[in-house]
Amino acid sequence: MYLGLDVGTSGLRALLADEAGAVVGVADAGYGVSHPATGWSEQTPGDWIAACSEAVAALREAHPTEVAAIKGIGLSGQMHGATLLDKAGEVLRPCILWNDTRSAVEAAKLDQTPDVRELSGNIVFPGFTAPKLAWVKANEPDVFDNVAKVLLPKDYLRYWLSGEFISDMSDSAGTSWLDAGARDWSDQLLDVSGMRRDQMPDLVEGAAPGGELRRELCREWGIEGPVVIAGGGGDNAVAACGAGCFREGEGFVSLGTSGVLLAAKESYAPDPASAVHTFCHAVPETWYQMGVILAATDCLNWLSRTLGQTPATLAGDLPDSISGPSSITFLPYLSGERTPHNDSRIRATFSGIDIGDGPAQMTQATMEGVAFALRDCLEALKGTGTNLNRLLAVGGGTQSPFWVETLATVLNVPLDIPDKGEFGAALGAARLAMTACGADAATVMTAPPVSHTIDPRSELVPAYNEAYARYSALYPSMKALMT
């Protein structure tokens, strides 16, 4: 048996799979996010441990024999989080999360430093780890002086599971300290942000062994052991493993809390100026590129809170099929934006609201705005030479037929909807556990069965292209107003 652990932003998912990859059981445990100041987003690392204990306990209760037979554990985690430990391994402050924008000034300074983009393969975004440490150095010098190790969220959980300081290349590529082409820490990148190699964890490939479960936990969980812990990876890379996406030309689009358009790459070809992320994959000698928008279903959640109606009610008031774009234009920049703007200051906008418009029209415009933002990501990927003829569509937003058909038409790409079941980061983590125990990645990491395909509405593509042009023209106008 194999256990996949996914450390998300709002909770941890534990998935138990057998040696054939079939899902035996799933358990979830939630935790909160703190926002102590505007643009801040923090989490208590101990909450990840408590959630893991809770989820594993639930699996033990439901599947005691299967849990006892666990041979490998895989890890997936929200990327970029700065978990700071002192020499005793104690947490120095709450973890600064991926969607925290307080370090925008530090990020811009690092990004302008010679060779940083070239070595890391990416723009230095405020959400990345390196500028967070630069912020801590400037604003919390006592904390910075006591930093002995910097761990990403899933690797802090690994530290509790194994007692070892280990990370993988895919997660570490989002720190701005990794040479993504060489798949190793860069002493130059560390030095320009005031860090040292000894403050970093050791590196392994995501599909390779990366520690063993502590004997105390083996006894507590009723496992004879030994249990191998895989290197694992950042959530999007591991989700790609769950979706069987690691060959050139394969990709997926995710309508989750944030939005992602990801393409697997068999070679390293970064283009930082495009604001496309180029990261190591969790599979050796493989990379991936992705465009990221900071709010996808979060936009619908915000509208839900604002209008006092549930997201399901808002989505349910729209038809199953589209008939053309809205006259309202929505910029979905509730927390700023990554691809293609790298703009932490821009904010969301509705333009063109009529006195007769109501919740349904605002919901349609919100869904279209998210789709247009993902079109920005697709255009940026095309600029790097990436061509995607079809995409797997995943995430909670795909429950809305209207939203999926809107997205397919805006992207002008067929979207495959997988059958119901597990195919995300928790399954990908379990698959990495299998490979760390000797399984062949190509055999294990298969694509999920497709339920149906949503094709673009070809007769409406020109109208949505015009609406996308209006959307694209609105950003520079709003940026000028906010400057």
TrEMBL record:
CDD domains: ASKHA_NBD_FGGY_EcXK-like. Residues 252-436 form the Carbohydrate kinase FGGY C-terminal domain. It is an enzyme of class 2 (transferase). Its EC number is 2.7.1.17. Substrate binds at residues 79-80. Coiled coil: none annotated. The active site is at 235 (proton acceptor). Residues 1-242 form the Carbohydrate kinase FGGY N-terminal domain. One of its GO terms (biological process) is D-xylose metabolic process. Signal peptide: none annotated. PROSITE patterns: FGGY_KINASES_2 (PS00445). It catalyses: D-xylulose + ATP = D-xylulose 5-phosphate + ADP + H(+). Catalyzes the phosphorylation of D-xylulose to D-xylulose 5-phosphate. PANTHER family: SUGAR KINASE, XYLULOSE KINASE. This is Xylulose kinase. The gene is xylB.
